[in-house]
Amino acid sequence: MAIDRVVHIVDDDDAVRESAALLLEIAGYNVLTYASGVAFLEAVATASPGCVLLDIHMPQMTGLEVQAVLRERGVVWPVIVLTGQGDIGIAVQAMKNGAFEFLEKPYQNEILLGTIAEAFERLESVIEEGARAANAQALIATLTPRELQIMQGLLGGLPNKLIAHELDLSVRTVEVYRANVMDKLGARSLSTAVRIAMAAGVQPLGSVRDET
Prior knowledge:
Blueprint: E1 6-10, H1 14-26, E2 30-34, H2 37-44, E3 50-55, H3 63-72, E4 79-83, H4 88-96, E5 101-104, H5 109-140, H6 145-155, H7 160-167, H8 171-185, H9 190-199, H10 205-211
Helix pairs in contact: 5-9, 6-7, 6-8, 6-9, 7-8
């Protein structure tokens, strides 16, 4: 899935922002710059998804603090952390907090460009996965409560006879509901139906029973 390749540069150093922005714009990226983590967080809610180039040492909010807020808000954009020499401990913490990668200043342009390219591959994968989940959830939402139970039984690996026993239905009734499920999901095979259900986060019938 092609996306707008937007890079958000968050650094209080004017020279770093300007040089990185020029490099990335020449490479074909759309670049937005922020002089502080606070400014970035104020804009992120309405900003285009992209890769974040985030400095660690900034006034008002550190890069680690910005990372924490992004996690709280559910922002899953890849973050490349910029650290100074000797900041390995901080860099490791940033990675534990979900950073895609960290680069030491001064970084090599080729390494920065390669890392950002990899980050966008990750972002596209995340967006595609989210789109698949949303589509699967929309399909599952078309099922009636009984049809959903049948799908949960199938997801649990139960044959029609056992599903019928679990739900106190006849085998023939389960077969009818199963055909309806397949039709509504647009699935020509059971494996396709199972993949849709898993993408939508449907729990197997046995799991649901065990939790109640």
